[in-house]
Amino acid sequence: MMSENYKDELQKLVQKHGLFKPEYVTVKSGLDHIPEFITTVTINGHSFRGSFRGQTANTKKNAEKLAALEVLNYIKSYKFNNNQIKTCILIDLDYFPKFDDDITIKELCYDNLDIFVFMSNEHKSTKKKFPNEIIQIITPSNNPEDTKICMSTYLGSLLIKNLYDEYLLATNHDFALTLIKIINDKTLGWDNKKAREINNISQICEK
After folding, report:
1. Dihedral sign of CA atoms 162, 175, 124, 150 in order
2. Rounded Cα distance, 136 and 5, in Å
3. CA dihedral of 94, 204, 13, 136, whole degrees rounded to 10
4. Per-residue pLDDT tens for 99-146?
5. From residue 75, how far is each of 108, 129, 158 by CA, in Å?
6. Which are the contacts of 35, defined by CB distance < 8 A and separation ≥ 6?
7. Are 86 and 64 a contacting pair, CB within 8 Å?
8. DSSP structure class, residue 57
9. Closest C-alpha among 175, 176, 174, 163 to residue 203
10. pLDDT exceeds cutoff 50 at 81
11. Within its chain, how far is the Cα of 96 from the centroid?
C-alpha cells in the first residue's frame, strides 16, 4: 500500500511557484472484482499520466499518488546539475508570441533558472496569467522596437548586479547577436559570462 504523500508534496510545490492547482482525472478499467485505475494529472495545461513501469493502480487513491509522483520525478529528472550556474532566460514576447506557452512546469521549478518576459503594452492586452516564477517587464509603448530597448537596458542592470552566470536570449537573431557581444565584452566590466541564442525551450539544457 502506498503511504508516501506525493499529492501533498506536489500541492506545496505548485503553490510555491504560483502554478494552477493540479487537476486529477482517473479512468477505471478491468473487472469489477479486480478493478484497475490510472490517473492523469494536469498542471498549467501540461498533463502527466501516472503509471509505474506500465502498471495500473488497484485503487483511485493510489492512482492519483502515482500521477503526482510522475510529475515530481519529471521535475527532479530535469534539474540542472549541481554546478551552481545561475541562468536566466530573456524572452522577447513580441518576437516570440507563443514562446511562453512552451514553458513547462520543469522550467518553472528549476532552482537556478529565472525567466524574464518582455512585451509591449499592446501584447499585454492578451491578459495572460503568468505563473509567479515568470518575471514580466512591460514596455509602456506599442512599438516592438521599444521592447528591444527595454530588454537591452534590463540586461545591462542584470550584468552590473552580477546576478547570473549564463544568459539565454530568445529574440530576433541579429538583436540576440548584439546582446551576446555585449555580454562577452570583458572591457565593459564583467567576466566569465556565457550567452547564447535560443528559439525554443528545449535548448535551455544544451551546453
Report:
1. positive
2. 34
3. -20
4. 777 777 777 777 788 899 998 887 655 555 666 678 888 888 888 889
5. 9, 22, 27
6. 28, 29, 58
7. no
8. B
9. 176
10. no
11. 15
Rounded to whole angstroms, the Cα distance separating 116 from 155 reads: 10
Are 140 and 153 a contacting pair, CB within 8 Å?
A: no
- 67, β-bridge pairs: none
Asked whether 119 and 136 are in contact (CB, 8 A), the reply is yes
Rounded to an integer, what distance in angstroms lies between the CA atom of residue 14 and that of residue 59? 25
CB 180 within 8 A of CB 192: no
157's grid cell: 542592470
Give the separation between CA 162 and CA 198, rounded to whole angstroms. Answer: 21
Assess contact for 118 and 92: CB atoms under 8 A: yes
> Residues 195, 204, 79, 90: is their CA dihedral positive or negative?
positive
| In the block, residue with C-alpha cell 528591444 | 148
User: d(Cα 89, Cα 21) in Å, to the nearest integer?
Assistant: 25
pTM reported for the whole predicted model: 0.70
User: Confidence band (pLDDT; 50, 70, 90) for 1?
Assistant: very low
140-180 residue pLDDT tens = 888 888 999 999 999 999 999 998 999 999 999 999 999 99
38, 58, 65, 67, 81 from 51: Cα distances, Å? 7, 11, 10, 7, 26
d(CA 155, CA 90) in angstroms, rounded, equals 8
